[in-house]
TrEMBL record:
It comes from Pararge aegeria aegeria. The keyword Acetylation does not apply. The lineage of its organism: Eukaryota, Metazoa, Ecdysozoa, Arthropoda, Hexapoda. This is Jg25815 protein. It comes from the Eukaryota. Keywords: ATP-binding, Nucleotide-binding.
Amino acid sequence: VYVTSESKFGTLAELVHHHSVLGDGLITQLLYPAPKRNKPTVFPLAPPDEWEIDRTDIVMKHKLGGGQYGDVYEAAWKRCNMT
C-alpha cells in the first residue's frame, strides 16, 4: 500500500500512521480522519401495484430476438394462458 512508490507499507494502518507524522508526498500530513457522511434515507419497498404480475406466474418460452439492451422472449401468463 502506498501513496508514492518510494514509501511502501505492509498495511493501511502503517501508511496512515506514517502520513500522520510526515506529509511525505502529500500536500500536508494527515491531521484527523475525514468526517463520516450521513447515510442516505432508504425508503421501504412499496407493495406491488394491481397491474404487476408476479414473476412466478410467467413461463418463459423461446427467444424471439436480442440486441444491445438484452434478449426478448415469448412468455405465457400461467393464470390466463395468455402470450
